[in-house]
């Protein structure tokens, strides 16, 4: 069963884009580049973009619980508390192995910073969510954060060139993936860009492509009426009224075939027809349509947040029927409800138009003059911002060009080296040829020696063959041993997992103390046995690897926190488990999985021999030496100095009667070595035992 999650956030993002291009009226006065209707049209999409859209496979109660907690997170998007809630959602999803909700959890964090306007965090989290989505094959989230977050952020902040570059890159990648929803997201972004750039022809073309994809979606895209309205509006701006009428008729047919139609969908359709009838001069239909729009707002509470659209529709209507006093009242209402600089520009220009039509030339001239002064100031800022944006893009291109040039230079040097190598090889071949000729001449004098050499060579070949067979037998035996260990470990781990799981069920189901005690013993001892087989399997895997990678960028505290969280289950209640991070956040190159595993072995060893007191995990970064020193310190029984080396040998135990296989420390030591580090015991510490793990420090 598939369920589409669409959580609408009560947060309206209105696009503010300063007009800077004017056109002549018949009287010579100037109008702004982007009409009020186009601005309202853009706001449709910025209203849609703050929604978290995902597809959740609600197949289990656990998935349903994650979904409900996600709803709770979405309701707190504008509070800093949502960051901790998102971490909780991520951890729960990780424990359940639900990669989809792991991506959604990080997207919640992105949305928080998106609404805060934090550019650095937005860029960082977009890259992170894209990486996770690509890794987990969550393409819907991948293209959503790219288009509706990053590109929309650029558009809202007046960076259309950045937005267009990202949209082109996204379209290329979506086409490579052959992912229709991603392609649709690109077309929507490019249409918005062309709207801002006052290019209705290109905007209409992209809306048409968007609609072609949206009409084929299953389930039907609830935003399709907005796309129809957007296409029709741009067709009207281009003077193609007949095409706009056909588009709106398609939208009307679409709504008629829906089982449930929202007031918002009806509003989109009605606004489109209102604009069309005004353009055609159809007064009767215009009147009926504006009455219908006002009736929708009067009867539907959900449209309260779209009151700006009602005022925009009334303004167009009153100007079309020359009721200028009412139009002026609507403009004052717009100015009151949205006291921004952009709103001030719109009201100045519109009032100039109205007073001109009322033949009040003096008032019109005053408003036009104020509009020109205000618009010039805004346009200068916009031009400066555009220049800065172009300069930034130029610098980026320049860096890319320099990078390509550097690669070419490296290739040239490699070719030069290759030519020298070829020349050297030719010289060697010539010398070898002369040497062969010399040997050929000597060969006639060494016939007897040749027979000896042939005989010895035959013996060597025979010995070599025997050695090869012995080596093959040894390799086969080693492979059989490894395969046997892996197979038997897997075969035993499967029933052990079942025993552990069902014994935990018994503990929870039977509350009698004796039964609970027996079930707990089964659980504990099965867990010990399962850890033994895990250790054997890990040892077998480590033996097959020459070295471990150390190239993942992560926060240094992540591995420590993961190890501490894992250790809580086996540390005795009388022992305090402490973690002292020396830094709040340091991004380094590391191997989070294996570093966490090494720390887990050390913490498990400390917990086994510490009955009371504390176990402390901390680390020290030494940039001058280029190393990180992790330490696990306990207040347990300690290890005698003369036996501190043998504890890292396999199957070595100081107390043969203590629980454990004697493999944990040897596995941890092998992992540390293959990560390029060391593991040792601090002999100077005598209040218990302290293990010191030293690994390379490579800042990210």
Blueprint of the fold:
Elements: E1 2-7, E2 23-24, E3 30-31, H1 36-48, E4 52-57, H2 61-74, H3 81-96, H4 99-116, H5 119-135, H6 139-156, H7 160-177, H8 180-196, H9 200-214, H10 224-237, H11 241-256, H12 263-280, H13 283-299, H14 307-320, H15 324-337, H16 341-357, H17 361-443, H18 447-509, H19 513-543, E5 552-555, H20 556-567, E6 575-580, E7 587-590, H21 592-608, E8 613-622, E9 627-634, H22 664-674, E10 678-681, E11 689-696
Helix pairs in contact: 1-10, 2-3, 2-4, 3-4, 4-5, 4-6, 5-6, 6-7, 6-8, 7-8, 8-9, 9-10, 10-11, 10-12, 11-12, 12-13, 12-14, 13-14, 14-15, 15-16, 16-17, 18-19, 19-22, 20-21, 21-22
Number of helices: 22
The overall strand count is 11
Structural class estimated from helices and strands: alpha+beta
Helix coverage percent of residues?
55-70%
Please tell me the overall pLDDT. 78
* Percent of sequence in beta strands: 5-15%
Radius of gyration: 37 Å
What's the CATH class of the domain at 552-696, please? Answer: Alpha Beta
Overall geometry: extended
Separation of the first and last Cα atoms: 43 Å
Main sheet record: 5 strands, mixed
User: Any idea what the CATH superfamily of the domain at 552-696 is called?
Assistant: Histidine kinase-like ATPase, C-terminal domain
Widest sheet: strand ordering:
6-8-9-11-10
CATH architecture of the domain at 552-696: 2-Layer Sandwich
Describe this entry's structure for a reader.
This is histidine kinase. It comes from Bacteroides oleiciplenus. It catalyses: ATP + protein L-histidine = ADP + protein N-phospho-L-histidine. With 700 residues, the protein is α+β, with helices and mostly antiparallel strands. Among the domains are: 463-543; 552-696, Histidine kinase-like ATPase, C-terminal domain (Heat Shock Protein 90, 2-Layer Sandwich). Helix content is 68%, strand content 9%. It is built from 22 helices and eleven strands. The chain has helices at residues 36-48, 61-74, 81-96, 99-116, 119-135, 139-156, 160-177, 180-196, 200-214, 224-237, 241-256, 263-280, 283-299, 307-320, 324-337, 341-357, 361-443, 447-509, 513-543, 556-567, 592-608, 664-674, and strands spanning 2-7, 23-24, 30-31, 52-57, 552-555, 575-580, 587-590, 613-622, 627-634, 678-681, 689-696. The protein has a five-stranded mixed β-sheet. Strands 1-4 form a two-stranded antiparallel ribbon. A two-stranded antiparallel ribbon has the order 2-3. The model is unreliable at 1-34 and 47-58 (pLDDT under 50).
